[in-house]
Specification:
This protein is α/β, with parallel strands linked by helices. Helix content is about 35%, strand content about 20%.
């Protein structure tokens, strides 16, 4: 464990966010099983990190009551979001984690950030070391350079960052949080900074000593 990881974990704990560390991605699923009892209701946001660590497959394995929104539309999709909002455990990653112990997340549809802020009994984030940044300014830049562009490509969205590989706001040397395109398919719509938590330990962050996701 590097000094940067240790500092980040210490500050997450000071902010009321439970921090875990594993060396390899193969250690994530066994840890998750200790945190979420079989039969619990679970759901997740779209996350490459969850897929890469086997957590997505675990949620779909049948040992949990998995609230799956894939393939749903209209009222069925809305109802799945509402069910997820009250689930026992919600899984996602974080766009960035600062060394100060803050979580920075940007969403388009925003069902993920809604569940991070309130609702599920616990939120479990799986985060690769590539997402640890010094501060919020670096977190803002990371989303514009490293997170949003590949995610728009993954989701087959037509945005400037999908075509160029970075947010158009960076061309003007701007790192302002909300600056960006006006595309109707823009995924940077709501910005959430998670700092000190009243409900200590509700949010859990599993830091994996590997690069994961975007």
């Amino acid at each position: 464990m590097t000094e940067t990881i240790r500092k980040t974990m210490d500050n997450l704990e000071k902010n009321g966010i439970k921090a875990f560390f594993v060396e390899t991605k193969e250690e994530v699923v066994p840890l998750v099983k200790t945190l979420v009892p079989q039969g619990s209701s679970v759901s997740n946001g779209g996350s490459v990190s969850l897929a890469e660590t086997g957590v997505s497959a675990l949620l779909e394995s049948g040992i949990y009551d998995f609230i799956d929104r894939r393939g749903l539309e209209g009222e069925e999709l809305r109802n799945s979001y509402i069910r997820a909002f009250g689930c026992d455990a919600y899984f996602c990653s974080s766009n960035a984690v600062t060394e100060n112990g803050e979580l920075y997340n940007v969403d388009g549809n925003s069902n993920r950030v809604a569940c991070i802020v309130f609702g599920p009994r616990q939120v479990i984030m799986v985060v690769g070391v590539n997402k640890i940044v010094p501060d919020l300014d670096a977190a803002i830049k990371r989303v514009k350079e490293c997170a949003a562009p590949p995610n728009t490509v993954r989701l087959n969205l037509k945005t400037p960052c999908a075509a160029t590989g970075e947010c158009i706001s960076l061309k003007d040397d701007s790192s302002l949080m909300c600056d960006g395109c006006k595309s109707p398919q823009r995924i940077c719509c709501n910005y959430v900074v998670t700092a000190q938590q009243r409900h200590k330990g509700r949010i859990k962050v599993i830091i994996v000593n590997r690069e994961l996701g975007y």
